[in-house]
Amino acid sequence: MNKPIPYSLNSKQVADATDEWLAKRGVTRISIAQLAHFLQKDYYPDLTLDECIDNVDAVLSKREVQNAVLTGIQLDLLAEEGKLIAPLQEMIKNDEGLYGCDEILALSIVNVYGSIGFTNFGYIDKLKPGILTKLNDKNDGEIHTFLDDIVGAIAASAASRIAHRKQAEREGALNAKAE
Protein backbone atom coordinates (compact mmCIF):
# COMPACT_ATOMS: atom_id res chain seq x y z
CA MET A 1 0.00 0.00 0.00
CA ASN A 2 1.35 3.43 -0.93
CA LYS A 3 1.84 6.01 1.76
CA PRO A 4 -0.03 9.25 1.02
CA ILE A 5 2.19 12.19 0.23
CA PRO A 6 1.99 14.73 3.06
CA TYR A 7 0.16 17.92 2.18
CA SER A 8 2.44 20.80 1.36
CA LEU A 9 1.48 23.97 -0.48
CA ASN A 10 4.07 26.05 -2.21
CA SER A 11 3.92 29.57 -0.74
CA LYS A 12 4.85 31.05 -4.11
CA GLN A 13 1.72 29.45 -5.60
CA VAL A 14 -0.43 31.11 -2.94
CA ALA A 15 1.23 34.50 -3.51
CA ASP A 16 0.90 34.18 -7.29
CA ALA A 17 -2.76 33.16 -7.02
CA THR A 18 -3.40 36.17 -4.77
CA ASP A 19 -1.87 38.53 -7.33
CA GLU A 20 -3.71 36.83 -10.19
CA TRP A 21 -7.13 36.99 -8.54
CA LEU A 22 -6.76 40.57 -7.38
CA ALA A 23 -5.93 41.51 -10.97
CA LYS A 24 -8.87 39.48 -12.34
CA ARG A 25 -11.14 41.40 -9.97
CA GLY A 26 -9.74 44.77 -11.11
CA VAL A 27 -7.55 45.52 -8.10
CA THR A 28 -3.95 46.62 -8.56
CA ARG A 29 -1.26 47.20 -5.97
CA ILE A 30 -1.20 50.81 -7.10
CA SER A 31 -4.92 51.22 -6.40
CA ILE A 32 -4.40 49.83 -2.90
CA ALA A 33 -1.31 52.03 -2.42
CA GLN A 34 -3.40 55.07 -3.38
CA LEU A 35 -5.74 54.23 -0.52
CA ALA A 36 -2.83 53.90 1.91
CA HIS A 37 -1.53 57.27 0.67
CA PHE A 38 -4.99 58.78 1.17
CA LEU A 39 -4.90 57.57 4.79
CA GLN A 40 -1.41 58.86 5.60
CA LYS A 41 -0.75 61.91 3.39
CA ASP A 42 -1.95 64.43 5.97
CA TYR A 43 0.43 63.02 8.57
CA TYR A 44 3.40 62.60 6.24
CA PRO A 45 3.21 65.21 3.45
CA ASP A 46 6.41 63.87 1.83
CA LEU A 47 5.01 60.33 1.61
CA THR A 48 5.37 58.96 -1.90
CA LEU A 49 3.22 56.50 -3.76
CA ASP A 50 6.30 54.28 -4.14
CA GLU A 51 6.62 54.08 -0.34
CA CYS A 52 2.97 53.12 -0.17
CA ILE A 53 3.44 50.44 -2.83
CA ASP A 54 6.36 49.00 -0.85
CA ASN A 55 4.16 48.79 2.23
CA VAL A 56 1.27 47.23 0.31
CA ASP A 57 3.75 44.67 -1.03
CA ALA A 58 4.86 43.90 2.53
CA VAL A 59 1.27 43.41 3.68
CA LEU A 60 0.42 41.22 0.69
CA SER A 61 3.51 39.09 1.32
CA LYS A 62 1.94 37.73 4.51
CA ARG A 63 0.34 34.34 4.14
CA GLU A 64 -2.64 35.16 6.39
CA VAL A 65 -3.41 38.14 4.15
CA GLN A 66 -3.17 35.98 1.03
CA ASN A 67 -5.50 33.45 2.66
CA ALA A 68 -8.08 36.15 3.40
CA VAL A 69 -7.86 37.53 -0.15
CA LEU A 70 -8.38 34.14 -1.76
CA THR A 71 -11.19 33.16 0.63
CA GLY A 72 -13.04 36.44 0.16
CA ILE A 73 -12.75 36.42 -3.62
CA GLN A 74 -13.93 32.81 -3.75
CA LEU A 75 -17.03 33.65 -1.70
CA ASP A 76 -17.75 36.67 -3.91
CA LEU A 77 -17.42 34.51 -7.04
CA LEU A 78 -19.70 31.83 -5.65
CA ALA A 79 -22.28 34.51 -4.87
CA GLU A 80 -22.00 35.86 -8.44
CA GLU A 81 -22.65 32.34 -9.73
CA GLY A 82 -25.61 31.89 -7.35
CA LYS A 83 -23.93 28.87 -5.75
CA LEU A 84 -24.35 29.71 -2.07
CA ILE A 85 -27.12 28.32 0.09
CA ALA A 86 -30.11 30.50 0.92
CA PRO A 87 -30.31 32.87 2.72
CA LEU A 88 -26.50 33.29 2.61
CA GLN A 89 -26.70 33.79 -1.15
CA GLU A 90 -29.01 36.76 -0.80
CA MET A 91 -27.09 38.27 2.10
CA ILE A 92 -23.77 38.24 0.24
CA LYS A 93 -25.30 39.20 -3.11
CA ASN A 94 -26.92 42.25 -1.54
CA ASP A 95 -24.06 43.05 0.88
CA GLU A 96 -26.57 42.84 3.72
CA GLY A 97 -25.89 45.48 6.36
CA LEU A 98 -26.29 43.06 9.25
CA TYR A 99 -23.99 40.49 7.65
CA GLY A 100 -20.62 41.25 9.23
CA CYS A 101 -18.54 38.25 8.23
CA ASP A 102 -16.99 40.25 5.40
CA GLU A 103 -15.67 42.79 7.91
CA ILE A 104 -14.53 40.01 10.25
CA LEU A 105 -12.43 38.44 7.49
CA ALA A 106 -10.97 41.88 6.72
CA LEU A 107 -10.21 42.47 10.39
CA SER A 108 -8.09 39.32 10.40
CA ILE A 109 -5.75 41.27 8.10
CA VAL A 110 -5.86 44.49 10.09
CA ASN A 111 -5.26 42.61 13.34
CA VAL A 112 -1.69 41.93 12.23
CA TYR A 113 -0.91 45.68 12.35
CA GLY A 114 -2.36 46.88 15.64
CA SER A 115 -4.97 49.37 16.76
CA ILE A 116 -4.06 52.07 14.23
CA GLY A 117 -4.96 49.55 11.54
CA PHE A 118 -8.44 49.16 13.03
CA THR A 119 -8.93 52.93 13.07
CA ASN A 120 -7.71 53.28 9.49
CA PHE A 121 -9.96 50.42 8.38
CA GLY A 122 -13.07 51.90 9.97
CA TYR A 123 -12.36 55.28 8.39
CA ILE A 124 -11.70 54.00 4.88
CA ASP A 125 -14.58 51.52 5.07
CA LYS A 126 -16.94 54.38 5.82
CA LEU A 127 -15.64 56.74 3.10
CA LYS A 128 -14.94 54.12 0.40
CA PRO A 129 -12.61 56.28 -1.73
CA GLY A 130 -10.69 55.23 -4.84
CA ILE A 131 -10.96 51.59 -5.90
CA LEU A 132 -13.39 50.98 -3.03
CA THR A 133 -16.01 53.10 -4.84
CA LYS A 134 -15.80 50.75 -7.83
CA LEU A 135 -15.79 47.60 -5.70
CA ASN A 136 -18.81 48.83 -3.78
CA ASP A 137 -20.80 49.57 -6.96
CA LYS A 138 -23.80 47.25 -7.02
CA ASN A 139 -24.71 48.01 -10.66
CA ASP A 140 -21.92 46.28 -12.58
CA GLY A 141 -23.07 42.69 -12.05
CA GLU A 142 -20.02 41.79 -9.99
CA ILE A 143 -20.19 41.02 -6.29
CA HIS A 144 -17.40 42.34 -4.10
CA THR A 145 -18.99 41.98 -0.66
CA PHE A 146 -15.78 40.52 0.74
CA LEU A 147 -13.22 42.08 -1.59
CA ASP A 148 -14.06 45.73 -0.86
CA ASP A 149 -13.45 45.16 2.85
CA ILE A 150 -10.32 43.10 2.20
CA VAL A 151 -8.83 45.78 -0.05
CA GLY A 152 -9.67 48.41 2.57
CA ALA A 153 -7.99 46.27 5.21
CA ILE A 154 -4.84 45.84 3.12
CA ALA A 155 -4.66 49.60 2.61
CA ALA A 156 -5.33 50.26 6.30
CA SER A 157 -2.62 47.77 7.24
CA ALA A 158 -0.15 49.36 4.83
CA ALA A 159 -1.00 52.78 6.29
CA SER A 160 -0.44 51.43 9.79
CA ARG A 161 2.88 49.94 8.73
CA ILE A 162 3.87 53.34 7.31
CA ALA A 163 2.94 55.10 10.55
CA HIS A 164 4.95 52.65 12.65
CA ARG A 165 8.00 52.97 10.40
CA LYS A 166 7.81 56.75 10.25
CA GLN A 167 7.67 56.86 14.05
CA ALA A 168 10.73 54.60 14.23
CA GLU A 169 12.52 56.93 11.78
CA ARG A 170 11.68 59.94 13.97
CA GLU A 171 12.92 58.19 17.08
CA GLY A 172 16.10 57.15 15.28
CA ALA A 173 16.73 60.74 14.20
CA LEU A 174 16.11 62.05 17.72
CA ASN A 175 18.42 59.44 19.21
CA ALA A 176 21.13 60.31 16.67
CA LYS A 177 20.88 64.00 17.61
CA ALA A 178 21.09 63.16 21.32
CA GLU A 179 24.36 61.27 20.83
Report on the architecture of this protein.
- The structure is a single chain.
- The longest helix has 32 residues, at 147-178.
- This protein is 68% helix and 0% strand.
- Helix 1 packs across helix 4 (63-80).
- The chain is globular.
- The N and C termini lie far apart (69 Å).
- The model has no long low-confidence stretch (mean pLDDT 95).
- The protein is an all-alpha fold and 179 residues long.
- The protein contains 9 helices and no strands.
Q: Give the termini distance in whole angstroms.
A: 69 Å
Helical percentage: 55-70%
Question: What would the average pLDDT be, to the nearest integer?
Answer: 95
Q: Can you write the helix and strand succession as a string?
A: HHHHHHHHH
Q: What Rg, in angstroms, do the CA atoms define?
A: 18 Å
Percentage beta strand: under 5%
- Which assembly state applies to the chains in this document? single chain
Shape: globular
Low-pLDDT segments, ≥5 res: none
**Structural class assignment:** mainly alpha
Number of extended strands: 0
Helical stretch tally? 9
Largest sheet composition: none
